[in-house]
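Figure 2 data, in text form.
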Amino acid sequence: MDKPVIQWTIEELLKAQVRDIIIVISEGKEAIVKYFSPDKVLESCLQKQGKIDRLRPLNELIEKVNLNFVYQKGPYGNAAPILSAKNYIGKSEPFLVVWGDEFIFSRPPWLKQLTDCFEKQGESVLSAIKVEKELLASKGVAKVFSKIGDTYKIEKIVEKPAPGTEPSDICISGAYLLKADFWPYLTALKAGKDGEYWLVDAINSYAREKPVLAKLIKNAKFYDVGSKNKYYQAWRDLLPPHGL
């Protein structure tokens, strides 16, 4: 279990032709920076032991992407890291938000499906999966206007709906590809539930005025890797030849 989920995620971004990547960290998370930085002492040690090949996949990945690290500032909530990265993202550029504790494995690759949908439709698009009814109460669930193929137009996202009140079985999870015109809604965001700044609140405000799509990821298997047991399951499933 020597490959962290964040590396899987960067590999998926690369498959979607995304090479400029900002990793938002908090104080005390410098191990993430170190992991993606050259370590001459380790390389020398592995070279002497004839094990330098162990570093090759990671080093090749680092060579192919432009990684930048930003410390999270400001209020608490899942909108805060995006706001912390705002000055590093082009003002007219769409941007992709991916969480570090969720992962979707699919063929074609998950994030490639999302970027292909964006290029075709030209609107902000969120990755979506269908989950068992008993899991909906712990997820963000989409209320939709309409459907074209495997793409839905979203009216709003309901966070953790009470059992029996779910607006659909479409769970918004994993990634958000947002147009540059989303920024005003994010910067105007106020504290919401529990005093946190929630990305979904900004998306719902945006969706009242502009199109927001949900792309149902084909052949998807969702992993919530926030616990050791679930991380182990993902790691086991994603080992070649069956997985990544």
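Caption note: Residues 110-121 form the longest helix (12 residues).
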